[in-house]
Amino acid sequence: MANGERELPRPTPETQNFWDGTKAGELRLQQCGDCENVYFPPRHFCPGCGSKNVAVLKASGRATLNSYVISHLPAPGFTPPYAIAVAKLDEGPKMMCNIVDSPQTPEALVIDMALEVSFEKINDDITLAQFKPAGGQ
Amino acid sequence: MKRNSVAIVGASETTELGKVPSMSQVQLHADAALNALADAGLKLSDIDGVATGGHNAVEIAHYLGIVPKWLDGTSVGGCSFMLLVRHAAAAINEGLCNTVLITHGESGRSGLGRHGSSIFPSLFQQQFERPFGVTRPPTMFTIPVLRYMKDFGLTEETLAMVSVVQREWAGKNPRASFKDPITVDDVLNSKMICYPFRLLMCCLVTDGGGALILTKADRAKDMPQKPVYIRGTGESAETPMISQMADFTSSAAFRVSGQQAFESAGISHADVDHLMIYDAFAHLPIYGLEDLGFVGRGEAGPFIAEGNTRAGGKLPMNTNGGGLSYMHSGMYGMYALQEGVRQMRGTAPAQVPGAEISVVHGVGGMFSASGTIVMTNVA
User: Would you say residue B137 lies in a domain?
Assistant: First the structure.
């Protein structure tokens, strides 16, 4: 880790359940009971139809690499070059992440490759949902 | 809005662009404002509406000694100024004020008198993006592009051509920051910033400002400058988080803003003589050309590479050299509008002969917001 500490999320009442989930090893999305929309980030209503009839949906953790960049710029808590990626979950929503357990190169990071969630404990309060190449590589 | 009912009667950039260590941000606003007033033949006391983005509008009004009847501080990033033109035109038509001053100033390079981000921070971005190492715009704005490249076969060479063509335009502009010609190889051999983006695919970081003065079209006829009429307008917003852009190959904000602008102006794409598409990074003109409907999906890269947007091409675009080569203070939208005005007045350094309709399209944040203005010199 170079240049100080990585910025950590500051959970809010609307998002606490998501961060409780990552600590427990679960990737929690939300689903609308009226229109069935699955959405992220969390909030207390469905952004598709406005219904408050929403419930937690535990995601499979399976995803594909939708897009990414490899940053060569300095960033607190990161050693460049490092990938900033967007995983597209099998359930539909997209989520920003880093790709762990993989070289940070265009050759290793192939658009649409299969990913799986990998929880990275930062401290007692925060665990990040990261992604790694699927298949135990 | 009634077409051509409001006109731009004053327009100017700051006296200097580039590195301006003698002025803090508020003075850049004021320098541009005073230049625009002189351009319009007006005095500060003639202004009864004040608007700015990325800076406290109250501070701008107070600094200029104006107690306005109408104020707008819409701050959605670089396209704030397109939205402010739209809002000002509506306010003038509604009779809320008569003469609006829209200012921009940004000490982007020298950092004098800035107060942090020009866009409100996002709650979700703090929690769901910043922990993954996004920092400055090159680490965010670029994220959709590998998706686009795979889906449409856009190559790095074609992407680099955007920078090459814009530099050609900059070479015709004495005020451009970079004027020397560049090649595709120069772009692809420049320093890697954020794969697949190289230095020469990223905008400049400079100091500068600009100001516009708008009033009713019937008043404009008696003023010193050739009036530039607001013929159509559009605006929209999608998301404060690049990761939540619904389609990484197309901007919903661009599509909604552009469609409103074309429909309100009552024009077709063939009517457009001159085009500005905010180019903070080399991919933005590609997304803009497609989302505004000038070309089909996946066609914009080849359209630029084949020379259609260069001098003498059928759709001259970013004729000042753009954010890639002319200047980019951080919120470039004002400079795109200024070039639209110059083209409509017939005073641009790289003038498009006989141009009557200019479309000026802006982006705010990282595909977060958008604003589009259709200008004309034909009443």
Answer: no
A54 and A70 in one domain? no
Residue with tokens 């921070």: B121
- In angstroms, the separation between the Cα of residue A136 and the nearest Cα of chain B is 22
Q: What is the separation of C-alpha A112 from the centre of its chain, rounded to a whole number of angstroms?
A: 16
User: A100 and A111 share a domain?
Assistant: yes
- Distance CA(B220)–CA(A27), nearest Å, equals 60
The sheet with strand B228-237 has its strands ordered as: B70-72, B49-52, B99-107, B207-216, B6-13, B228-237, B369-376, B357-364, B274-277
Please tell me which residue in B278, B287, B332, B335 is annotated as part of the active site.
Answer: B278
State CA B153 to chain mean position distance.
Answer: 28
Nearest to B231 by CA among B21, B101, B372: B372
Q: Is residue A15 part of a domain?
A: yes
Tens digits of per-residue pLDDT, B233-256?
Answer: 999 999 999 999 999 999 999 999
Number of cross-chain residue pairs from A and B with Cβ atoms under 8 Å apart:
99
Q: Are A77 and A3 in contact (CB under 8 A)?
A: yes
Nearest to A73 among B127, B139, B144 (CB): B139
C-alpha distance from A65 to closest chain B C-alpha (Å): 9
CATH code assigned at B281: 3.40.47.10
Residue B108 resides in a domain: yes
> What torsion, rounded to 10 degrees, do the Cα atoms B84, B56, B333, A73 define?
-150
Q: Active-site residue among B148, B326, B332, B335?
A: B326
CA distance B191 to chain A (A): 10
- The total of structural domains in chain A comes to 2
Give the ipTM: 0.96
Chain A positions in Cβ-Cβ contact with residue B124 (cut-off 8 Å): 41
Residue A120 lies in a domain: yes
- CB within 8 Å: A84 and B134: yes
Do A68 and A95 reside in the same domain of the chain?
A: yes
Query: By residue range, what is the domain housing residue B44?
Result: 6-114+204-376
Domain containing residue A33 = 11-58
Number of domains chain B contains: 1
Tens of pLDDT, residues B256-294: 999 999 999 999 999 999 999 999 999 999 999 999 999
A5 assigned to some structural domain = no
Q: How many CB atoms lie within 10 A of CB B291?
A: 25
In a domain, B191, yes or no: no
Read off the pLDDT of residues A77-132 as tens digits, 9 standing for 90 and up.
Answer: 999 999 999 999 999 999 999 999 999 999 999 999 999 999 999 999 999 999 99
| Closest CB to B133 among A67, A75, A94 | A75
Q: Tell me whether residue A2 is in a domain.
A: no
Condensed to tens digits (0 to 9), the pLDDT of residues A12-28 reads: 999 999 999 999 999 99
Closest CB to B139: pick one of A8, A15, A84. Answer: A84
- Among A69, A70, A112, A122, the residue to mutate for chain B (most B Cβ within 10 A): A69
A132, A75: one domain: yes
**Could you tell me if A106 lies within 8 Å of chain B, comparing CB atoms?**
yes
Chain A residues closer than 8 Å to B123 by CB: 12
